[in-house]
Amino acid sequence: MRSARGLIGGDPVEPLRLFPLRYPWAYAHVQQAKRNTWFPEEAPLHDDVQDWHERLTEEERQAVEILLGFFNPMESLVTSNLLLALYPHLTAPEVRLYLARQAWEEANHAMAFEYVIKTLPVDRERVFGMLEEHPAVAAKAAFQRRLTAEILKPDLDLATIEGRQRLLRNLVGFFVILEGIFFYSGFAFALSFRRRNCLRGLGTIIDWVLKDESLHLSFGVHLIQAFLQENPEVRTPALGEELRRMILEAVALEEAYNQALLPRPVLGLHAGSLNAYVRYVADRRLEELGLGPHFHTPNPFRWLAAEIDLPEQVNFFEARNVNYEVARPRE
Ligand SMILES: [Fe+2]
Ligand SMILES: [Fe+2]
């Protein structure tokens, strides 16, 4: 029999004993993730290469490079955080199963962006240099790295409220902010090309990544809610305020990034509309954390909601409508 322990505090090297499930939502996310399996090369990019040469303007090409220069390293940062910061501490078996699956998906995303970078005639040096050299990309990466570093500090003690609050900040920073805010202007921008019947292969890859990321976000929100339920003492008004500030800081970083992505309008999109979208998305994330919306901005991209409203997808636009199948725990 498994002992009646929670999300944290188990033996980190104990072999997996899954049933009976304690967190059926985590197992349901694993099952859904399996159904979402895809491989980058299934999306042909021949037409994208032709589009690159014949249809894209220089400004559009530069914006795509900034997009790839952000997405690609972020996949690595999130993988490191999962394996180094979260896996050692989150010891519930079905949660670990999902973290392992998610780590594979993030690796698959890194390979997918690598496939795009190597197939499109992008300036490879510029794309990979973006993380160091582009202030808006570097600032977002630094924001995430700081959260991972906080967990890796030797003084982390999850027996204390402070330690568990530190873990919660990491969960919010990665699952809600990185998975749930930082990726979304990129998604909107990339899918705008497909809307013009352009870069359709990249659009397909973005669809698949988006499907995975929305499941990661959904898993993260469930995880945070379960963690707060088990550790109600960490939920202080001061921490709530701090989480709200973190999300607002992330929105400011994202707005600077959007400005860098689109110094001038591209494809009819301008930084202002992407910023409005980010504010709309951030409000949904604040609501999921029970913190209440801040911006009250309407969704400027209704077309995007329609475009990605696929079956079997967690609908992150209607955060409460979490569309996954609940597994039946085996007796
Ligand atoms: Fe990813
Ligand atoms: Fe992710």
UniProtKB/TrEMBL annotation:
EC class of the enzyme, as a word: oxidoreductase
Pfam family name, one: Ribonuc_red_sm
Catalytic activity: a 2'-deoxyribonucleoside 5'-diphosphate + [thioredoxin]-disulfide + H2O = a ribonucleoside 5'-diphosphate + [thioredoxin]-dithiol
Self-association state and partner proteins as the record states: Tetramer of two alpha and two beta subunits.
Residues the entry annotates as binding Fe cation 2: E106, E179, E213, H216
Record-level GO BP terms: deoxyribonucleotide biosynthetic process
NCBIfam families: PRK07209.1, PRK09614.1-5
Family to which the UniProt record says this protein belongs: Belongs to the ribonucleoside diphosphate reductase small chain family.
E.C. numbers: 1.17.4.1
Cofactor(s) listed in the protein's UniProt record: Fe cation
Record protein name field: Ribonucleoside-diphosphate reductase subunit beta
One MF term in the entry's GO annotations: ribonucleoside-diphosphate reductase activity, thioredoxin disulfide as acceptor
Regions that span the bilayer: 171-193
Keywords: Deoxyribonucleotide synthesis, Iron, Membrane, Metal-binding, Oxidoreductase, Transmembrane, Transmembrane helix
InterPro entries tied to this protein: Ferritin-like_SF (IPR009078), RNR-like (IPR012348), RNR_small (IPR033909), RNR_small_fam (IPR000358)
Function: Provides the precursors necessary for DNA synthesis. Catalyzes the biosynthesis of deoxyribonucleotides from the corresponding ribonucleotides.
Source taxonomy: Bacteria, Bacillati, Chloroflexota, Thermoflexia, Thermoflexales
UniProt-annotated binding residues for Fe cation 1: E75, E106, H109
Record note on cofactor: Binds 2 iron ions per subunit.
Taxonomic superkingdom: Bacteria
UniProt keyword Endoplasmic reticulum, yes or no: no
